[in-house]
Write a structure and sequence with these properties.
This protein is α/β, with parallel strands linked by helices and 251 residues long. The protein has 2 domains: 63 residues, no CATH class; 163 residues, 3-Layer(aba) Sandwich (Rossmann fold). It contains 11 helices and 5 strands; from the N terminus they run αααααβαβααβαβααβ. The radius of gyration is 24 Å and the shape is elongated. 25% of the residues are buried.
Length: 251
């Protein structure tokens, strides 16, 4: 009896040492199941390993969602897809497999305030995280503040390197950048560094044709639109209707 207790204690300690918490918690339960169902040793081991892998994947996704800063309530299920024009709806569905991240394509979503464009990208971002992609959501106002502080502290390169760990950056409300040349320059630096290295997903109240009003300085304003849709790279432009803009049904 004491030997059985010793084996259990040693096994528990070994599983703890090997960082296998799920197996440590469930191996006895699964052993009883294996006895009842006459499972082979391989099936028993397979069941344990599967449970460990599933829990690790779930924990990994939970951690990635937390780091992404995406609000979990803004899910795809909570998004009113009727807001999207048919073409934009097709584009949204095509984004969910994450292939655009591998091509480092950029996504531009335009729409009036309250049209749901932010919710749309937040929902897409969540789905991509659940598929194992590293995503980051940040408002343009917060992004500018972080970049300016990093520049002041001579840590801009370090911050941009931190952002480079994310396959996709969702930057909300690009039209915010209308204040100073310094703001425009730090955002341009970030976009230039991510060129062909990572995708940028942008929302804006302004159509692409009016972005010169955001990047006013000709030394920084001209290259940004060019770099956002370079040769050989696709840029999606999806318009989103507000509820007031929905087409009326004919009676």
């Amino acid at each position: 009896m004491s030997r059985a207790v010793d084996v259990k204690a040693e096994l528990t300690q070994s599983l703890k040492y090997l960082h296998l918490p799920t197996i440590r918690q469930c191996y006895e339960e699964v052993a009883r199941q294996a006895e009842r169902e006459s499972l082979s040793y391989e099936r028993y081991l397979h069941e344990l390993v599967q449970r460990e892998c599933e829990d690790r994947q779930e924990n990994r996704i939970t951690k990635m969602l937390r780091k992404s800063q995406l609000p979990l309530e803004k899910s795809l299920e909570a998004f009113d897809s009727k807001r999207l024009p048919p073409k934009a709806a097709r584009q949204m569905r095509s984004l969910l497999d994450g292939s655009f991240l591998q091509r480092t394509d950029n996504i531009l979503v335009f729409g009036n305030p309250g049209s749901g464009k932010t919710h749309l990208l937040q929902a897409v971002g969540q789905e991509l995280v659940r598929r194992g992609h590293r995503m980051l959501f940040i408002t343009c106002e917060m992004l500018v503040q972080e970049l300016l502080i990093a520049k002041r502290d001579l840590k801009l390169s370090r911050l941009i390197k931190k952002y480079s760990r994310y396959e996709g950056m969702i930057i909300d409300d690009l039209g915010y950048i209308r204040q100073t040349r310094e703001e425009m320059e730090v955002v341009f630096t970030l976009l230039a560094e991510r060129y062909e290295r990572g995708s940028v997903l942008l929302t804006s109240n302004l159509p692409f044709s009016k972005w010169e009003g955001i990047f006013k300085d000709p030394m920084t304003g001209h290259p940004v639109p060019q770099r956002q849709h370079p040769r050989g790279q696709t840029t999606y432009r999806a318009g989103v209707r507000s509820p007031q803009e929905r087409p009326r049904r004919r009676s």
